[in-house]
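Hello forum,

I keep getting stuck at the same step: I have a sequence, I want structure tokens, and every attempt I make locally crashes halfway through. Rather than fight my setup again tonight, could one of you with a working pipeline run this one for me? It's a single chain of 145 residues.
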Amino acid sequence: MISVSFIQIILFVYYSFTKLIDLYPFNNVKEFSPKERFLDPVYKGLLLFIPPISFSFALGWMMFLSLVIYLFILIYEIKKWWIPYLFKPDGSWQKKYERIYKDTVTFLPPIKDNPIPNLENVIFHVFIAATFTLSLFCYISQINK
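Reply #2:
Ran it on my machine without issues. Output:
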């Protein structure tokens, strides 16, 4: 449990660090509006803080809630970044991408004029998918005891 909790804490720290500190061109926090700079880290940051607590104390129902949180965030990130990249973005996301993320570090090939997920967010997506998977295995082993 402790090793999974440690990974969950690292995920929380990574997310908080990259949303609160401008590391341009890795991220571009300075271009966030005051509302974006406050709401995203607070809401998602609070959600990411629940899993390490629930897994540290092996609280079954909270561990399940944590899995739901990770899955919700992962689906949200896929909808926000990968669907527009692979298919067609809506106009509001395209405008936000142009304003904030266009000049950040990317490594994926362009697809038409679609927004390309930047390195900061790709790392977050891989990290949250891996953390969800590890947490799921930990939860299953916990309930099978």
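Residues 60-86 form the longest helix (27 residues). If your local run keeps crashing, start a new thread with the error log.
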